[in-house]
Amino acid sequence: MNITIISVGKLKEKYLKQAIEEYSKRLSRYCKLEIIELPDEKTPDNASEKEELQIKEKEGTAILNKIKDNMYVVAMDLRGTQMTSEELSSFMHDLGVRGESNLCFIIGGSLGLSKQVITRANHKLCFSKMTFPHQLFRVMLLEQIYRGFRIMKNEPYHK
After folding, report:
1. Has 128 been labeled as part of a binding site?
2. Which GO terms describe its molecular function (predicted)?
3. Do 66 and 120 meet the contact criterion of CB atoms below 8 Å apart?
4. Does the annotation place 130 within a ligand binding site?
5. 2-41+49-152 belongs to CATH 1.10.240.10
6. Are 12 and 40 in contact (CB under 8 A)?
7. Is residue 132 annotated as involved in ligand binding?
8. Residues 32-48: pLDDT tens digits?
9. Does the annotation flag 131 for ligand binding?
10. Is 61 annotated among the ligand-binding residues?
11. Which helix (H) or strand (E) holds 59?
12. pLDDT recorded at residue 45
């Protein structure tokens, strides 16, 4: 399986980079992983709704330019469905069985995803109703993908 993560925002913190490197290394046994980092647009303090919409649309256009036609797109969205780790594992397994071997996860910037990206998504997934920094969320997503493959292969992994 090919997994692409398209994420808005540059990763700066060394400890997060190290965690991403670790999970990328672990995942290399199970899939081909590509992480695409897109620059986030600067949001001025007290930005108007219109300005925020324009920023989301600009980031959305950059995201859409990286999505290939053959990708099954999962948008990380607060209005998406929530899954357990086991359900995410089954979801990924079922996609592979159906021939959807190019899975793409989208992590938006601090304002979320544009309407166009949400519309393009084949599935909307919500990890939690809580808000997380998108840089930290990238690590959390990689960990859950790794956990999903371990579950799929009936390999031990702490619960």
Report:
1. yes
2. rRNA (pseudouridine-N3-)-methyltransferase activity
3. no
4. yes
5. no
6. no
7. yes
8. 999 999 998 888 888 89
9. yes
10. no
11. helix 49-66
12. 86
